[in-house]
Amino acid sequence: MNHGSRCSRRASRWSLAVLAAALLASPGCSSAPDGAIGRSSSSALSSGSPIQGYGGKCLDDSGDGTADGNKIQLWDCNGTNAQQWARVGATLVGPGGKCLDVQSDDQANGTVVQLWDCNGTPAQNWTFEGGTLVSAGGFCLDDTAFGTADGTQIEIWTCTGGANQEWTMPSSGPSANCTTITATEQTLDDAQGNVWSLSDGVVLENGSDAGYSANATELAYVNGEVYQENAAGSWWGWSGGTWVSASNPTANGCSVAPPPSAGFRVSNGQIIAPDGQLFHGKGINVYDSQMSSVSTASNGAPLTSVLLGINIVRLNVFSYESPGYYQTFIDQLTPLGIVVELEDHTNNAGNAGGGAGTVFSGSELTDELNWYSSVATAFASNPYVWFGTDNEPSEDPSAEALSTWQEQTYQAIRNAGNDSIVLVEMNCGSTPSSCGAGYTTSVYSGMTNIVWDAHYYGWLTGYSTDANTITQSLSGNAQAAQVITSADGIVPVIIGEYGVSTDGQNTDPNGTQVVTAVESSGYGCMAWGWDPGANDDVTDGSNNLTPYGQQVAQFIAN
Q1: 265-557 falls under which CATH superfamily?
Q2: Torsion angle defined by CA atoms of residues 446, 366, 13 and 326, in that order, rounded to the nearest 10 degrees
Q3: Would 152 disulfide with which of 59, 74, 293, 394, CB 3.0-4.6 Å?
């Protein structure tokens, strides 16, 4: 195996030559090392639904515009993209992957709402309470003066309980099994798209009383059914439009029997492990050529002794070897509960990463798909072997062509009888609206058990050292990515690469802040990288942690 020079082996950074070539070839695109390709175009919302308000009219993005500050208004419901909204965490994401935003976060009567890049600020946080949408400042989304004319401006106002503040919410997909809520600002969603909440001890379904209830203190969603507990400790289950007496569905820790394959699965934007618990990835990138030195025994050392608590490895594959080539590494780590993700890191531009080269076709595509098929077949019975689509892929000739390529990779794995998790690369630029721009959203809507793989480095904020700027950028990217949904609903996000250096040679001015932001974001993440000899490696070549590696190791161990 000849991986060539260090820079060509990394497949994780843009060289200056590749970056310059990309800029010359694509005028108008921002520079985007590390595969997060800068774009200004927007994509249609993949899986949203209307929010209906006063007079039976819909929350509408004026003219389906995607400029920051675009007017949000009331308009006749018409099923267009301008009226498609998706719940992503505490945000409402609309056209262009942008968020419903309180102008300047001015939490006061009469402040208008607008469309704005998703940025993770309180101005974009909303809770659904008894049929109302409540801002972070406690004000309700309000149809100004009970207006019913098309174009009526939407604002925030003190919550009054008026009909002009009542909205029907889009579902975010069913809540994870065993979800419980106890507070009025919380909601859970059932498989039919109904939104359940509590208000002064009363159970609400889509903002209206669900049968008769009083003194309810808790709601639970277990095995597809909704339950309530009252102040006396009695449990009732929702059945046929009424509440019937039930035993405590959360007894015995609300254990969930794993599916027949005992594999990982995706549910409501989360990864569920074979034991039914949430899986939060904490790991590292490793070159395929390093396998025999990274893990030398059945206890996974030195990897497991250097990075205590590690539970995932992103294996960077630079040549298509037979499954046996990876067998020992997999046999040593996966029995320890460590996921090994196999991902192609080749491209037709020197393996430079960063979106270089072109979308695979012809014999290149055939060779890659045959490799994915072979390893998917060989490891079909091991749920701890995951797969990833090609690293930091090109969008030449188009983002639509990339979507087709990713679909072909996904099908090669599934057609081999393998249902394990597939990480799908999500290209993002310097603004959240660029994430997945131009992707063919229908390609992903039928996929199951997929996870978005987004990379994050200092260049994405122009190397800003401001912690809030970095945190908001990261959060905005993840939320924008999750607008594109799968058959499982919201797609989880893993930061498949992050570190202190964009180019692998020079430490970014904001490198430490980037690492801190990623590791405290709540998203699973895999640091770059184990490989010794550069300024962004976790070890020094002798299995000793670098200062950067110490920060990563502390995060993984906690």
Answers
A1: Glycosidases (3.20.20.80)
A2: 90
A3: 74
327 vs 341: CA distance, rounded Å: 13
Measured CA to CA in angstroms, residue 525 lies from 89, 207, 313 at distances of: 19, 37, 10
Token representation of residue 214: 């009083």
Strands (E), 112-151: 113-116, 126-129, 132-135, 139-143
Q: Where in the chain is the domain with CATH 3.20.20.80?
A: 265-557
Sign, CA torsion 268/423/124/116: negative
pTM over the 0.90 mark = no
**What are the start and end residues of each CATH 2.80.10.50 domain in the chain?**
54-165
pLDDT score for 553: 95
Closest among 544, 546, 555 to 514, alpha carbons compared = 555
The residue whose two tokens read 């298509």 is 320
Sequence letter at residue 506: N
113 burial type by CB count under 10 A (0-12 exposed, 13-18 middle, 19+ buried): buried
pLDDT tens digits along 149-173: 999 999 999 988 888 999 886 655 6
Closest CA to 314 of 291, 348, 346, 347: 291
Spatial separation of the C-alpha atoms in residues 354 and 403, rounded to whole Å? 17
Element holding 387 (H helix, E strand): strand 385-388
- Which residues contact residue 501 at a Cβ distance below 8 angstroms, ignoring those fewer than 6 apart? 13, 457, 458, 507, 508, 511, 534, 535, 536
What's the pLDDT tens digit per position in 225-263?
A: 899 998 888 899 998 789 998 888 877 656 433 334 468
> pLDDT tens digit string along 56-99?
899 999 999 999 999 999 999 888 889 988 777 678 888 888 89
> What pLDDT does 41 receive?
28
* Mean pLDDT of the residues in the chain: 85
DSSP at 498: E
Q: How far apart are CA 460 and CA 260, in angstroms?
A: 42
Buried b (16+ CB within 10 A) or exposed e, 483-508: bbbbebbbbbbbbbbbbbbbbbeebb
Domain 54-165 adopts which CATH fold? Trefoil (Acidic Fibroblast Growth Factor, subunit A) (2.80.10)
370, two tokens: 């045959």
Residue 19 has pLDDT above 50, yes or no: no
Question: Residue 251 corresponds to which tokens in the numbers above?
Answer: 């007894």
Please count the other Cβ atoms lying within 10 Å of the Cβ belonging to residue 414. 16
